[in-house]
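Standup notes
- DV: blocked on the single-chain target, sequence here:
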Amino acid sequence: MKKQRPSFYPLIFFLTLFSLPVFSATPPYFFLDGEGGWARINDTQTKLSREHNTGGAYNINAGYAFRRFFAMEMGYYGLPNNTFHQGIKGTHNEAAALDIKVIIPYDNGFNIIGKAGVAASRYALTPSYVPTMGYIEDAGDYVKAVMLLGLGFSYSFTKHLDAVIQGTGLSHNGVIPAKIMVTTGLTYNF
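- DV (later): unblocked, structure below
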């Protein structure tokens, strides 16, 4: 009976994958990121019927890459307002976030990006009273902690400039609705 030896092919594959030349900047470095796109406010917890809950969105992030595959960033997310029947509005859909970003080089300048973190999400439901409906139960201005998750791709044009496309989600917490964004933009690496 022939003795099986451990295969080194998976180890060789991963070492080759993570040693491919890429155009991205060499850590440590600071970066700025600006993106714009589309978002949806998933406001299902209210008992009101929606008229509109999608629109334009943007985010601005600043961060620091500690290692080639690891960075931390903080940012601001601006999301669309949503409207309900009877003139009721969900406004101040915004969040300030702090997250850990993992950057996996894929192929000659292409990278896979994943991020996870926490955000302070703000949401206001106004007005508190509608003559035809009475007092609105969840009316008010709220700020609560929510979870942030994101997944995307980037392409490094130069060691200083990357194009980014990503999807980002913010979880709901009580009255704060879940928010989903799909954005594209540019990252400048210092």
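- Follow-up: The chain has one domain: 23-189.
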